[in-house]
């Protein structure tokens, strides 16, 4: 027994263990005691960055606030260091005030009938797997609505130009696509000009703008993206923001989200480029609150289809647009 213990004590592994325990205990002895909540003289406290064992994976800001008497991380709240909603909205208004370009999306709320369900089943059997069925535009009978969007074309010209050109393209553009999903605590997703599922996208500056979606999918495996190098991330994600999804750094395609709620987790990640008009935002929030959806957010009783889109200054149509009534929404949800 004694011989065994002596061999363990003399081993290199035991020596390394002793050095590690000694180093850790010495480091913890150097930490200052926790000050009371009423302690005000924080300038004399040492810098927390100098202690390698106190920072953690989420940074050290929460610990400094904890030492100032603000409570733990669970009491400080998520994004406690961000500006308030009113300050973010004022900032977005100032950015848009520098210059905007207004575009419109004519959206049809098309009920899903038994014939539509049969067509979706046949489409899934005959077409490429992974694409969603969209009824022909000339067969739509649902209520039509117009969404106005102000793009920050002065501050973000490249991103705005990509969205405007996608609104103008006759085939591989936004016309004839679906707003396919309500993202929880974010908004309404759309812009997949290839499959209408949200898994693909195609920027406006591609060389196959006149081709059909099916031919593009057969000939190309990878969608094209557009690199945005000079546009800043100048807008916050507040209710009503139009944001382009960024799958790779500084690259966008055609997919976008119309935010109906404040989405601070998207700030600095995705590229916000515009703002919905107040009436358009109120309409989307009504849909999100009343349309019956699957667990993943896909509408069950309606297809939300972009029937037309373009620049508002170029539009001379006299089509009447109206908001869907609550009774119509409840009837569709019951069906």
Describe the structure.
The protein contains ten helices and nine strands. By secondary structure, it is of the alpha+beta class. Strands 1, 2, 3, 4, 5, 6, 7, 8 and 9 form a nine-stranded antiparallel β-sheet that branches. A hairpin with a 2-residue loop joins strand 6 (241-248) and strand 7. Mean pLDDT is 75; it is low at 24-57 and 318-335.
Compile the SSE list and pairings.
Blueprint: H1 2-9, H2 12-30, H3 61-67, H4 73-76, H5 85-97, E1 101-111, H6 114-126, E2 143-151, H7 157-168, E3 181-183, E4 187-190, H8 213-219, E5 226-227, E6 241-248, E7 251-259, E8 271-276, H9 278-290, E9 302-311, H10 326-334
The outline comes out as globular
Taken as a percent bin, the fraction of beta residues is 15-25%
Radius of gyration: 28 Å
How many alpha or pi helices?
10
The total strand number stands at 9
Distance between the termini: 81 Å
Name some characteristics of this structure.
about 325 residues, 9-stranded antiparallel β-sheet, 9 strands, globular, single chain, disordered C terminus, about 20% strand, 10 helices, about 30% helix, alpha+beta
């Amino acid at each position: 027994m004694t011989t065994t213990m002596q061999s363990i004590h003399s081993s290199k592994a035991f020596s390394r263990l002793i050095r590690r325990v000694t180093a850790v205990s010495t480091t913890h002895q150097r930490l200052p005691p926790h000050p009371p909540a009423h302690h005000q003289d924080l300038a004399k406290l040492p810098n927390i960055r100098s202690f390698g064992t106190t920072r953690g994976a989420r940074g050290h800001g929460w610990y400094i606030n904890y030492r100032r008497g603000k409570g733990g991380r669970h009491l400080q709240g998520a994004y406690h260091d961000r500006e308030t909603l009113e300050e973010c909205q004022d900032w977005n208004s100032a950015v848009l005030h520098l210059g905007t370009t207004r575009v419109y999306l004519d959206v049809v709320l098309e009920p899903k009938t038994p014939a539509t369900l049969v067509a979706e089943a046949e489409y899934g059997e005959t077409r490429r797997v992974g694409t969603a069925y969209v009824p022909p535009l000339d067969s739509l009978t649902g209520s039509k609505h117009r969404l106005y969007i102000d793009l920050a074309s002065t501050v973000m010209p490249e991103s705005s130009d990509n969205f405007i050109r996608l609104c103008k393209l006759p085939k591989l553009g936004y016309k004839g696509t679906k707003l396919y999903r309500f993202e929880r605590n974010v908004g309404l997703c759309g812009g997949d000009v290839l499959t209408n599922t949200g898994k693909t996208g195609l920027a406006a500056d591609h060389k196959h703008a006149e081709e059909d979606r099916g031919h593009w999918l057969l000939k190309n495996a990878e969608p094209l993206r557009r690199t945005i190098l000079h546009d800043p991330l100048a807008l916050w994600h507040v209710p009503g923001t139009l944001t382009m999804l960024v799958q790779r750094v500084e690259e966008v395609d055609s997919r976008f989200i119309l935010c109906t709620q404040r989405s601070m987790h998207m700030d600095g990640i995705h590229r916000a480029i515009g703002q919905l008009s107040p009436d358009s935002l109120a309409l989307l929030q009504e849909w999100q609150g009343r349309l019956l959806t699957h667990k993943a957010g896909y509408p069950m009783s309606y297809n939300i289809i972009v029937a037309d889109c373009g620049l508002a200054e170029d539009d001379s149509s006299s089509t009447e647009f109206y908001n869907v009534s609550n009774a119509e929404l409840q009837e569709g949800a019951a069906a």
